[in-house]
Amino acid sequence: MKKMRELAIAIIIAGLVVPAAAQVDTSGYSGWKQMYNSTASWEEGAFSTHATGHPDYGWGIYNSLTHDVMGDSIFIIKLLDGNFKKLWIVQKKSMQMRYIFRYADVDGSNEQEVDLSMGNYSNKLFVNYSLSGDSIANIQPQSTSWDLLLTKFNHPGMGYYVVTGFLANEDVSISVFNAPDSATAAGATIADTTEFTDSIAAIGNSWYELQGMSIVPLDTLAYFIKLASGDIYKLQFTYFESGMSGRGRVGIRKQKVSGTPDSEWHNDTLVMGPGYANEVYYKVDFDTKYQVTRDGWEIGFKTAQFTSSIYANTTKGVELYTYPYADTSGWGPATSTGPAITSTSGISLYPVPASKHLFIQHGLNTRQALNIQVFDMTGKQVLDRRAEIGETRELRLDISTLAPGVYILQLKNSEVQATSRFAVRR
Length: 426
Prior knowledge:
Immunoglobulin-like, mainly beta, 1% helix, 1 helix, elongated
C-alpha cells in the first residue's frame, strides 16, 4: 500500500490476485453508446446518463438508511493518453463526503483504489481527477468566485459536437432577449424579459452564428444575468478571435441594470488562448477571470454533500461507456492480501431475476459467520439472516416472501462488507 498522499487522497495499489473473470470483454465497444455530460444542470454528469430516477442515479443506487450511493455499474473509459481502463465508482459515503472508486487495466491488472474526500474541496463546484496520472487535478477556482464559464462542451442538439460557449454557475439564472435589431437589443431593459432559467447552458453557444468557418457574435441578442447576490447585469458579446490565431478571445460588454444601474457599457475580454487550450471562469460584477487548462483530468466529482454528479472530460477526448454485459460482479471476485474488501466486489448472484431462492457466490476473505440483510429500494430492511461460512463459497437464501421488485443485498461481519443488487420476479 502506498503512503497517504497530500490533499487527503489515499491511492491503494490493491494486493489482489485477479482471476480471469476480472477481465472485461471490450470487443465491439465502438458500437456502445458513448456517454456525455448534460448541459441542463451540473447535477447530471456523464456517469448519470442511464439514471432512471430516484433511487437509481445511473452509476449507483441510493440507500435511504445510510444516505450512501452504492455503485452498481462498471464503466470503460478511454483516457487522455489513449489507453483504456475499467472503472467502478464503488460508493459515495454522503455523510462523510467521500467517494471511493477503483480503476484498472481492462485485463484486471494495475488495479488501484482511491478514497477521495470532498470535504477538502467543498469550496469548489467540482474536484477533478487524473486516472492517467493517478492524482488530483485541483484546478477549479472557488465556486463563489465565478458566475460564467467560457469553455468547450458537447452540444446534445448537434450530435454532441464540441462547441465553444458559456455555462452558468449554480445560483446564477439567465434570461435571453432576442431582439429584431441591434439597437433594440442594446436598449433592452429588464421589463423586456421576465423569464429566467436555471439551465446552465442558457447562453451556451447561442451567442454567435457561423459564417463559413468564422464565429460571429450576434448583436441582436441581450442576456440578463441574475447573480447569486440578486444583482442583474445585461450582457452582450462584441467580438470573437479564433484560438487558431493564437488568441481565442471573446469580447464582452455589460451593464448593471438592477439597484443603482450603470449609465454606460463596460467592456471586458476573456482569453482561452491558442487552440482554445484553456477555459475561463468569469465573475461578472468584479471583472475577475481565472484561466484554467482544460486537460490534465478524466473525471470530476461534484463536491456537494448530497449529489451523485460525476463528470467526464469528453471535450478533450475522454470516452465513457457503461460495460453492457454485467453489473459489478463482472469486476471479478478477488482474494485480498491487504485490507478487507468493503464494496460490491466479490459477490455473484443468480438466477437473474430470482424467484424462490437466491444463490450467493462470494470470494470474501473471511471465515466468520455472515449477516445477510436485504433492503427494498426505500431502504426498508425486509430480510435478516445469519450464515455460517465453513468451507463453502455459496449461500442459498429463501426469498419466497419477497414481492416482485428490485432489492439490495448486503453481506457483513466485522471483517468484510459487500453489497449487490438483485431482482425478484414471479
